[in-house]
Specification:
This protein is an alpha/beta fold and 346 residues long. The protein has 16 helices and 14 strands.
């Protein structure tokens, strides 16, 4: 088991000061959609310096951060899952902890443990690795289900309970977890309750030839992550999160999400459809997706484009789907095509 803490970065870097020092020094004043878009673009550009050719994937990761969600990155080994998680962490001047999930990892390694203090005669709580703004969980499905379950309360309620005492986690709080496909050796499947707490799942995919050629040249000079510096701050992210909360969603768009979620629950090809939590997080990440684009409203196109990242990891195929050789991608595409979308906003 390995738990690593990154060194704190310089909180006075120019990008971090830009928003914090404006408007009388208030760090929580709500920025405009255009300002949120600039914050997101700055982070995306910074991460793109080490992750070539994956702009849309990176943008989705930033949207999940601004939606106060958690991100699951699933793909085969060696395509940059952990690098993306680390790059996101190093782009923001905040507290970051990395947990290497292994079969011998204990829940207390994640949440913390109470240790008896002989001098005071009382138990002192020693915080675990989850006490950070951004927690990078590497290869989460290599740990036992017991260790995985330690994240359930943290991710949903942003708190840790130990010996009858509740410890709140500081905002922003985000878990970015990586995992290998289940067919890989030494993996444990994430339980449904755990997967449902991840706002979105994305896959890196292999880089194209040009991106891989550039990567080979950069790697010869050392790890590009070592040259990455923060371009935002935790206070700036908190302000952007407040702005995302106020992005407008019409009742028609909300009903569209409900109709799509209901369609997954009624599909004979799925034995587990989208949960109400999925609908809530779908709206949240759609708000962030719109804000990243500089808009103050959510469109039905936002909802439709986010359907697979938000839903695919939460749902389970029925036997009928296996018999018909259908996969989750085609089923979600069929459902989104079958449910009429509300008219676009003028």
């Amino acid at each position: 088991m390995s738990v690593t803490s990154y060194a704190q970065l310089d909180a006075t870097s120019p990008p971090a000061r830009a928003l914090d020092g404006a408007n009388g020094g208030s760090t929580d004043q709500r920025p405009s959609p255009a300002e949120v878009a600039r914050i997101a673009a700055r982070i995306v550009e910074n991460i793109s310096a080490v992750i070539e050719g994956k702009t849309e994937v990176i943008r989705l990761g930033v949207a999940v951060l601004l939606a106060e969600g958690h991100l699951l990155i699933e793909d085969v080994p060696g395509v940059g899952k952990t690098k993306l998680a680390k790059a996101l962490a190093r782009s923001i001047d905040c507290t970051v902890r990395r947990i290497q999930f292994t079969p011998d990892l204990l829940p207390s390694d994640i949440t913390g443990i109470s240790v008896y203090n002989r001098e005071t005669g009382e138990f002192d709580f020693k915080p675990g690795a989850v006490f950070a703004n951004l927690v990078v969980g590497d290869e989460i499905n290599r740990a036992s289900p017991r260790a995985q379950a330690a994240l359930l309360e943290c991710m949903e309620e942003r708190q840790v309970s130990s010996d009858g005492v509740t410890y709140h986690l500081e905002a922003p709080f985000m878990v970015v977890a990586t995992q290998n496909p289940l067919e890989m050796e030494g993996t444990y499947p994430l339980p449904e309750a755990q997967r449902d707490r991840f706002t979105a799942r994305l896959s890196m995919g292999y880089p194209d030839a040009a991106a891989e050629l550039k990567m080979l040249g950069e790697q010869a000079l050392g790890d590009p992550l070592d040259r990455l510096t923060p371009v935002s701050s935790s206070s700036e992210i908190r302000a952007a999160v407040q702005a995302v909360r106020h992005v407008h969603v019409t009742d028609e768009v909300k009903r569209y999400v409900i109709s799509l979620a209901d369609a997954t629950r009624r599909s004979p090809l799925l034995r587990l459809g989208a949960s109400p939590r999925a609908s809530v997080q779908w709206i949240r990440v759609a708000k962030a997706w719109a804000a990243v684009a500089g808009r103050d409203y959510v469109s039905s196109a936002d909802i439709k484009s986010l359907a697979e990242p938000v839903l695919a990891h939460r749902m389970l195929l029925a036997r009928a789907a296996h018999g018909a050789q259908r996969d989750m991608h085609s089923i979600i595409a069929e459902i989104t095509a079958s449910v009429p979308a509300p008219e676009a906003r003028a």
